Amino acid sequence: MKKARLLGLLIALLLMIIILTLVFDKKLLVSIIPAEMLSFLESQDIRMIFIQTLLISAGFYIFYVILSFTISSTITRAGGKPGDIKMLTSFLRSIIIFVAVLLVVSMLAGGGLTFAAAFGAFGGLFLGWSLQQPVTGLAAWFLINIRRPFKVGDRIFLPAWGLIGDVLDVGMMYTTLNQVGGTVGSEEPSGRRVLIPNAILFSNVIINYTSEAKTSEPYILDEVVVRITYDSDWDEAERILLKVAREVTSDIIRETGKEPYVRSDMYDYGVYLRLRYMTRAVDRPRIAHEINKRIFKEFQRNDKVDFAIPYVYSYKRGERLFKKLSEKHV
Fold first, then answer.
1. CB-based contacts of 300: which residues, under 8 Å, 6+ apart?
2. What is the pLDDT of residues 87-130, one digit of tens each?
3. I want to staple 157 with a disulfide (CB 3.0 to 4.6 A). Which of 61, 207, 218, 314 is the partner?
């Protein structure tokens, strides 16, 4: 790749030297180009346009090769990645091609105010259309910094996108999140960086888990659901749940002053006991895991309570079992 660029650079320099020599040495130009073609070019004023076009192309190519080599060397010395070099050089190439084409078109159009006005009108229309989202993103960035609906370190949830993440940075165009979940089933940081365009923040609901915390850490309400059988001791089960929650979240209770409590629902196979407690917004999975583990061990040691599980009853098998039991007792 480097050899190809070096060869292209040499060819461009050689082409510029030849063109400049032809321009300033008319005798050499006449001896090379046939008289009929030279007369046509002079009459149509195409010769200078053709020469200028070649000069612009060669000049911009030389500029691109030198600048891209400088950028590549700088990024490599700084420890950058090949992907960074490719992105920057591609962007630079697009800009140079656009400017070169613009100059050639301006030259063909004869320059002047007419071309400038036409290009200005078209360019303004194009920029207004293409920069709609970036301008909206800048406005959103300004609003975020003034109103501060969230800040770096907050955990936010975008329901429309099903995305939860911890805010790492709020830039002019993008808000960077450390995705929570995604690769795992619980709400734990996955380490994946997610770029959210600021423009979408104007038209989407944002839930901030950690907004306006009055305590040293942000806390939210969470619950652990336990299913017990109908023949379990309800009071004993509730006592175990509250005891475990108080043990695991004792520091949170001191901080918030809010005690855990239990709510319940009936269902086909037993009773849902919903243990609700305050938990750290960014540490929900660990605390819920500890509570579940301790409840399980307490239930295993206690004969008064038992977990409810779905049971499928088969009439035919039940009838055969009933007959066997009847025969044994006869």
1. none
2. 777 777 777 777 777 776 666 665 545 555 656 666 666 666 66
3. 207
Task: Give the tens place of pLDDT for each residue, 32-70.
Answer: 455 544 454 454 455 566 666 666 777 777 777 778 778
pTM of the model: 0.57
Q: Is 315 helix (H, G, I), strand (E, B) or coil?
A: helix
**How does DSSP classify residue 128?**
H
Rounded CA gap, 150 and 210, in Å?
A: 8
Q: CA-to-CA distance for 189 and 81, rounded, in angstroms?
A: 26
- Report how far residue 166's alpha carbon sits from residue 155's, in angstroms, rounded to the nearest whole number: 4
pLDDT band at 289 (very low <50, low <70, confident <90, very high): very high
Helix H, strand E, coil C: the string for 177-223 is: EEEECCCCCCCCEEEEEEEEEHHHHHCCCCEECCCCCCCCCCEEEEE
Greatest Cα pair distance, the chain, in angstroms, is 132
Q: How far apart are CA 179 and CA 314, in angstroms?
A: 47
